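For the sake of transparency, this paper describes our internal protein records without simplification. Because each token names a local backbone shape, the row as a whole describes the fold. One such record is reproduced below, unchanged from the form in which we store it.
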Amino acid sequence: MKFIVVALMLPSLVACGQSAPVDQIDRTNIEVESPKEEKMKIEIWSDVVCPFCYIGKREFEKALNQFAEAKNVEIEWKSFQLMPDMPDNYGRTTYQYFAEKYGTSMEEAVSAHEQVTQRAKGLGLTYNFDVAIPANTGMAHQLIHFAKQHGKQDAAEEILFKSYFTDGRNLNDLSTLLEIGATLGLDQDELRKALENGTFADAVNADIIESQELGVRGVPFFVFDRKYAVSGAQDSSQFIAALEQAYAEWQLANQ
């Protein structure tokens, strides 16, 4: 089985990775959930240091706010790491990381990020790449899985995005993640124990392995009812089209 492509527009900022054409994703060996569900599921592969993921979240939320059947949609965030080999205490700026990784000048790196900053601004988001701290997001994704158990996964995604892009916080720092957890109302002792013991590391890895099986090479990547996919930070109109098309088919299957 293969996904049907709804929209594909590769991000211009290479740091967010690139996606293969969705209609080339082979799902033969991937288990498909039963269609008899109370709500249609939308899975979103994302990384909290990906600028297009935060933009994509806002565009998707705009679409969801306009979708008449939003109450019948369930959102599940999935882990994806753009920089899985990022060492602790990297010590370089976002611009330096981008320039070194992709062989560009600092001026080109700053210019590319400024374009993204302006698009984010149009959605009410504040990007401060001057203070952003490149970091391994493995532990942050574990926090998201912990928050999921308490019904606060989307809130965790939101505050982690803001912490990185706006506030310049280190998402690979335990004390920072505990403070974020406290803001979410999560139990501090339980969260500390989970992060120190890597309780949700396997869950993070499982999401990443699943993304590889699906052929996902870049984020954000939105999957609607395991039938349709939207790749990249599309305009909200693209998400509305995907929502309406996927939901109509889901509704027929669940009558």
About this structure: DSSP finds nine helices and five strands in the chain. Confidence is low (pLDDT under 50) at residues 1-15, 17-35.
